[in-house]
Design a protein that fits this description.
Strand content: 25-35%
Largest sheet: 10 strands, mixed
Shape: globular
CATH class: Alpha Beta
Oligomer: single chain
Radius of gyration: 19 Å
Helix content: 25-40%
Strand order of the largest sheet: 5-4-1-8-9-10-11-12-13-14
CATH architecture: 3-Layer(aba) Sandwich
Length: 310
């Protein structure tokens, strides 16, 4: 079982424009509303890869049905602490002429202490039956920055491996719980390291610093430069694959799902990395409202080139 957290769920409203005119009139060519958030995306990707998946966290009365339908339709177990209020709406402005997405994210509903306590109890219960607990996505206003650290420590007591995908203070504090895996992008790793990382070698050095701090595996997405992974003994890099990009939304979440699926199946570091990058690539090549095609993931995995570093 792969269980992901969604503490600040969002409805992603994608608005397509022929060309985004800043400060001018824009006419909408198409609009879609999708139940999303990083935890939801991870669970959906894991299910698409054939894994038993669950998504837990906070859910608000207004907008909940959109999530329930999407998760149930994909075979994902939804288990939430129910709250009054409305799910936040994140705007994604897709400029067709440039192939670019401009994102406008709402903060969400402030969390109450009783709600967070209930989430912690829920996560602990779910960790007992899960191989992985994925802590990902933004935290709602008023939620302590060390909340992911607390959940990670709780899960470790139950023997559940933790994957952490966070940034800033949430990442720094979460590392203190020594998670099994973290997946920062280059800028997140730069913030953690306190310096600019210009080359892949510098990125690897910073990743190894995280391993020395107690993290089991560090996977770093580097955009056009591909991705790398290390467990302190082996370091691998892939330039990735060039595909027709339909959307970059949830690519990183799909990479996490692939890594979790690979390690749950007992794959080697290289095999799990290959599955993670292939899942992310397939996500980019697939319209955001559709699930990842398993056959595309398999094809991408077979075409990826890997090289050892260090």
């Amino acid at each position: 079982m792969i269980t992901s957290t969604s503490l600040n769920p969002s409805i992603d409203r994608t608005v397509a424009l022929e060309r985004l005119e800043i400060g001018g009139l824009n006419r909408i060519a198409a609009q879609t509303d999708v139940a999303a958030g990083k935890g939801v995306n991870v669970a959906l990707a894991a299910a698409a890869l054939g894994e038993r998946a669950a998504c837990i966290g906070l859910m608000y009365r207004e907008g909940a049905q959109l999530f329930e339908r999407r998760l149930a339709g994909a075979g994902v177990e939804g288990d939430f602490v129910r709250c009054e209020g409305a799910v936040r709406v994140n705007m994604k402005l897709f400029d067709r002429s440039r192939g670019e997405i401009t994102e406008l994210n709402a903060p969400g509903v402030p969390a109450q202490e009783a709600q967070l306590d209930a989430v912690r109890e829920l996560a602990l219960r779910r960790a007992r039956g899960s191989d992985f607990l994925v802590l990902t996505g933004s935290l709602p206003p008023l939620c302590p920055a060390d909340f992911y650290k607390r959940l990670a420590l709780d899960a470790a007591v139950e023997g559940c491996r933790v994957i952490l995908d966070a940034d800033g203070e949430r990442l720094r504090l979460g590392i203190e719980a020594k998670p099994f895996l973290i997946k920062p992008n280059r800028s997140e790793l730069e913030m953690l390291a306190g310096r600019e990382l210009r080359t892949a070698v510098e990125v690897l050095e910073a990743a190894l610093g995280c391993v020395r701090a107690g993290v089991g595996v560090v996977a770093v997405s580097m955009g056009a430069q591909g991705a790398l992974i290390t467990d302190g003994e082996t370091a691998l890099r892939t330039p990735g694959l060039r595909v027709e990009v339909r959307s970059t939304v949830a690519a990183g979440d799909s990479m996490i799902a692939g890594l979790a699926a690979g390690f749950r199946r007992g794959f080697s570091l290289e095999e799990a990395f290959r599955l993670g990058v292939a899942a992310a690539t397939a996500r980019c090549a697939t319209p955001p409202e559709q699930g990842i095609p398993p056959e595309l993931v398999e094809r991408c995995a077979g075409e990826l080139k890997m090289e050892k570093m260090g």
